[in-house]
Amino acid sequence: MRPLILVWILLVFFVAWCASQGLTPSNPNITSSKDERIAIASAALERADSMLQSNGKFNDSAYDTFTRFYGQMAEFDRLTNQTRYKQSLKQCFDLDQPPPEMPIPIFVVHTPSTYYELYYGYAAAQAYAAYHDLYFLDLAVTAWTSANQATISEEQAASGTVDATLAGGTYRSMTPSDPNLTGMESGLFLVLSALLAEATSNQTYLNAAIESANFIQSHLLNPSNIVLDSLSSNSNDSCSVNSTVLPYNSGIFIEGLAILASITHNTSTEALLRSTVIAIAIDTQWQGLDGIIDTTDIDGHHIVHALAALYKRNTTSSDLREYIKGYIGVQYNAVIEKATSSGSNIYGLPWTGPPATSFSSLNQTVAMTALLSAIQLVANEPSSKSSDNPTSSRTPIVNMVKKNVTGAIIGGVVGGVAILAVIIARHCKGNHAPLVVDEHSPRILTPFMATSALVEISQQHRMIQTKNARCAVEASRRQSSASPGEVDADATRMNAQIESTAPLVDATNPPNLLPTERREDSLQTNELMRLLHERLLRGRLNDQDDEMPPEYSEGGTT
Known about the structure:
mainly alpha; Glycosyltransferase; three-stranded antiparallel sheet
């Protein structure tokens, strides 16, 4: 009886609180035409381009900012089917090429942090996707080969020189004394490997991407499906994990999974992708109650770009695809309405405002990701995959809660459910075990998703995380590594030019891809929500007239 009383007390409290707050999600509807969105993005790109110095760099930010801008120039050309920036990009990349007496690119010499060269390769891979010019592919392969030196291979792990569970992890720095295998570097290596696998059909790149994804899932993905910062490979650190949550790590991971899933069509990868997308989209650590990302770092870039990559490849169910469209729509509207002044073409951070008054290359490039991502959004485009619940008659989940009391009630129920899940979990354990609270677990937020739809999705795909054994051997850096899979540059070019007549080895069902096993010591929040939802329906609502949340019109674009 006591749990049921607590249920209703908390529900009443949250309904009243939310109604008093007047929670109002932001607008996911993009009303401008595609041509108008292209014009807005073009003006922002031109403003940034005018700020590049003669060396192809900005004077106010780090290396990753201008390489991010290189990728955005290529992305704009791909989205608009033109080559406006192709020659400019070649000139910019040429500035980072070594003189004849230097055998490796300047970016490798002057940048000890692995992520710099990964950003460089990532931009080159985006340029190759836009122009299909082998010049850019060679640059991407060079960056990949260099970053591969900082990545633990499956062969290394099998040899016993490092712990077997660390295969696929990438070190933060090229400096041998740095023991940290990070979410950012491992994620970027996953993305670059997946992009090269997508571009060349080379199995070596695909294997590398799978290894990186497995590493992140096994070691850095917390129970809430959020990627943590890093893991120390020192044996005396016992594989200790730095549990700092940096949202861009999850964004990078999602992008890598999106590309990987489009290649392998592996159901485990698709389920993991769905779970991580939902986790990143509902966490209020980096977005407000209006659903707008409100950080002042590169988080918005990686989150939105990852969702756009998934939307582009159209490999997810229609309900999640519609949700992604609405999520991007919220960010786009915030950028053009709150982060810039009319006609300035200068954008600021955070996207919640106030508008920028001066140019910042960091702020500009992060905002341009939202502008570019919105170009490809279209209204009522069917997904290549049907919803995971074909019998469902619900509207797509990219549904905004209306500005009324019913919307507040929905928010209240969600908040109540989140706390009630904890209470029920403790009650079910009979108070025989302490309640472990993960300080990084997301507070549940559904700014434009109907509560019932969220529960339905969470039921369908619940991420169950693997926990591997602690490290027993101190990791050592790779002393030597061949170019991808012993494949020379000529073979790489051949793969890029000629579509392979044979499918990738086990590409549709790679062995041991993202294995999962159930954690017996704790239930996922989504499952607790589902159990509570079912319990409430059975216990209290059977004899009442069901009043379902109202159906809302989906976010649209022109």
